Automatic annotation (TrEMBL):
InterPro entries: Myo-inos-1-P_Synthase, Myo-inos-1-P_Synthase_GAPDH, NAD(P)-bd_dom_sf
Pfam families hit by this protein: Inos-1-P_synth, NAD_binding_5
Domain of life per record: Bacteria
Family designation: Belongs to the myo-inositol 1-phosphate synthase family.
Name the UniProt record assigns to this protein: Myo-inositol-1-phosphate synthase
Family matches, as SUPFAM superfamilies: Glyceraldehyde-3-phosphate dehydrogenase-like, C-terminal domain (SSF55347), NAD(P)-binding Rossmann-fold domains (SSF51735)
Residue ranges of domain Myo-inositol-1-phosphate synthase GAPDH-like in the record: 223-327
Amino acid sequence: MVPTAAGDRLGVWIVGARGSVATTVVVGAAAVAAGLAPPVGCVTELPDFRGAGLTPVGRLVFGGCDITGVPLAKRAEQLVAAGVVPADLPAAVGGALAAAEREIRPGVAAAAGRQAPQATAIAAQLAGFRERHGLAHVVVVNLSSTAPQPGPHPAYASLAALRAALDGPEPVLPPHALYAYAALGAGCGYVDFTPSGAMRLPALAELAAEAGVPYAGNDGKTGETLARSALAPMFAHRALRVRAWSGTNLLGGGDGATLADPRAAASKNASKARSLAELLPEPVEGEVHIDEVPALGDWKTAWDHIAFDGFLGVRMTMQFTWQGCDSALAAPLVLDLVRLLGRAMARGAVGVQPHLAFFFKDPLGSDEHRLVPQYELLRTWASPGIPDPPA
């Protein structure tokens, strides 16, 4: 990979480019770049990262794909009506929305037939995007709806087996994993912001190594699990015995509808539960429940109940409620991740990037789930004193 200066533009190709999160990303990036909004929620704008050599937000170039045809400008209007985007912003950043809209291509709705040609077509879209804008690097971000985890398949065991299977008559990869395959093969960095788990397939990890590109995931840590990753270590460090930890999540919008499917919800629930199992010294009772509430729209509510024992076995409880807008919570993290992964590409990084665990519920390449140690690992990696590998 050819290193690029921090001032060069970085391509961002979003799978699910017309969704609520993606639209908020484009609107927010343009607003921050123009000085119309402060970078609240952007970790990479903290003082710890000012010397990290990251691409400025205003130098990000957006494109992507989607199976829906609602233009970004219309989606932005819908987000205004939902109270997610300030009313004056869509008009103020209309040029940025139009530029991103021109770079959105039809998505793959469902895998069918031979997938090798489909992967080739996706890779050609990415190559065209890179060439049109003279981009040294492109980061692909999966913001599509949560999908079930890929089931067992012999083709997933090795890259050679997967390539052979993709050239066969039957589909072997779900659409989100097919995008990951095409992105890595096209030399793009890859971020799985969903819990769908494509990059846990050994064949795709092998492909990233062969292509010499970095990747990170999975399942962006935006709300309830963020609070858990800060609170659970508190109980452990104070030697308080947690007996039960239950959570209920109420979701509206597209996420709520998607997670009403038990197969998709299983991916999300497994991702949420894994962090708590890693954070506490003993197994605890309780489960995470996700319920669709269409009236909530783009907003979500999470309620957690924690039962714990203190000195002499005295039983106590703690409860907290997290109410937030998922798009507004996720969008700045997407900007952080593409800037950090773009810098990793410039530094010649290859394979999973464990220092990005800070951003995920179920981080790839790391067993560290405690929020503060995750942040320290990220800050250390971003330090200007850490030398780049030779080109």
